[in-house]
Amino acid sequence: MDNATQKYAKRMLGVLTLILCFKILGYYTLSENITLTRILKITIRFSMTFFTFLALKSMRNKGKLHQVTLDKPLAIFFYSLYLFLGLCSLLWSTNPGYSALQLLMNTESFVFVILYVKTFLVFFKNYKHTLKKISWSYLFSWSIFWINLLFLGGYFFAPDIFLRLTHGGSEQRLGGYFMNPNELGMMAVVGLGCTIIEWQKNHKKLLNSILFIVGLSVLWLTASRSSMIGLFLIMLYFVFTSQNKWMGTTVLIGAALLSPVVFQQIFLKQGDLSEVMSMTGRLPFWKALLTEGLPKEPLFGFGYMRIAYTEHFQSAHTYAGKMTHNTFIQVLMNLGFVGFTIVLVQLFYQLRAFIKSNNKAVNTFFVAVFIPVLINSFTEFGIFGEANFGILFYQFLIVVFAFNIKQKLL
Questions:
Q1: Distance CA 181, CA 183 (A)
Q2: Of 379, 406, 378, 382, which is closest to residue 395 (Cα–Cα)?
Q3: E strands, 131-216, where?
Q4: Is the confidence at residue 265, as pLDDT, over 80?
């Protein structure tokens, strides 16, 4: 094996990991100053897109050229149609400036993902025999690990800024002003799912165990109910699809023993079951949105990422909100039944691409990412909501299944 080739492959793998790590960090509130935060977010996100382009160009300069083709176009077509409808909605948006900003951020991340997936495919095709660990699960597990480690360190050394007070100040949840704890928990579960995939490959089990413990600690400290459910479903999937029955039995027994503690500490906060049943007040809010807000603009909605004529949806029967805390209701309010239909068709073709795929590595990666992101979509920003890294993760699933390498370019 050429030593120079191996060094280049390791360096490129590190670069791709760092790019993804910083791209995710670009969605965090890195300063309490709103103006500075916006500047940092835009700078980091666009810089990572530019660096991805440079990485692809680097391999092309080395003669590592392959034809990246569009194999399954329908999921990517309907997602592009969804963004195009968002562009058209600037004509009737109740706040065109805000809609345009959100559309720009989500479109930019889509462009980034397309470039990143192309770069990865060329890299994988040329160096998969040089580095056995090249995989989507490796990139995501390590990219998320460094962010998890940052928050875990913040919990111990800077709790004043890394913890968020909830329930009248009686509960402390990891996230601080940097990130919504539920969003942070979702990211941690994506990392945990990818780490489990790497662990099953027998790739440095001790090291992956450390990644898992760090991710699980972050998840626990976020006290995110939806994320806990996501992790449980992912583990069930791996248990029932694993050939190692001993491992599956051990996981199930461990989950059964820990479930009373998890339910008491995470799900039943302060012994208040009514909070859980109302989904922390979201159910009456959703009812008001659908019965009072949607009938006003049922066909095309209020405009991309808008849910009312004013900045907040107001109702006499619930709290005022700027977003719906449910990505599907968000689409209904943003783009009406036309946008909602496009989104459902896109989701159908995305699941169809997954079911028809024979690539086990890509399929397990899909499960590790899709389950926590979808569950998060029912209670937070979600895959069709305001700019967040859940959208970034879902865009990866769209493009990973859509693109493939056919032949080397001469």
A1: 5
A2: 382
A3: 163-166, 171-174
A4: no
Output the average pLDDT for the chain: 87
C-alpha closest to that of 21 among 207, 115, 110, 149: 149
Confidence of residue 232 (pLDDT cuts 50, 70, 90): confident
Give residue-wise pLDDT tens across range 172-213. 899 988 999 999 999 999 999 999 898 888 667 788 889 999
Beta carbons of 382 and 326 less than 8 angstroms apart: yes
Backbone torsions φ then ψ of 262, nearest 5 degrees: -60, -45
Closest CA to 295 of 282, 283, 306, 308: 308
Q: How far apart are CA 407 and CA 201, in angstroms?
A: 28
- Report the candidate in 402, 405, 404 with the shortest Cα–Cα distance to residue 72: 402
Terminal-to-terminal C-alpha distance of the chain? 24
CA 376, CA 185: separation in Å to the nearest integer? Answer: 9
Please determine, for residue 247, whether its predicted confidence score (pLDDT) is greater than 70: no
Residue 409's pLDDT band (boundaries 50, 70, 90)?
Answer: very low
- d(C-alpha 405, C-alpha 231), whole Å: 32
Task: Check if the beta carbon of residue 97 is closer than 8 Å to that of residue 311.
Answer: no
Query: Tokens standing for 401?
Result: 């299944």
Euclidean distance between CA atoms 40 and 28, whole angstroms: 9
Report pLDDT digits (tens) over 282-330.
Answer: 888 888 899 999 999 999 999 999 999 998 888 777 778 888 989 999 9
- Residue 45 and residue 378 in contact, taking contact as beta carbons nearer than 8 Å: no
Half-sphere exposure of 157 (CA within 13 A, CB side): 6
Which residue, chain included where needed, has tokens 């080395």? 62
Measured distance CA(121)–CA(127) in Å, rounded: 10
Tokens 């032949």 belong to: 407
Backbone angles phi, psi at 327, to 5 degrees: -65, -30
Residue 408 binned pLDDT confidence (cut-offs 50, 70, 90): very low
Q: How far is CA 409 from CA 20, 53, 54, 92, in A?
A: 27, 18, 19, 46
The owner of tokens 């922390």 is: 280
Q: What are the structure tokens assigned to 363, written together? A: 């399929």
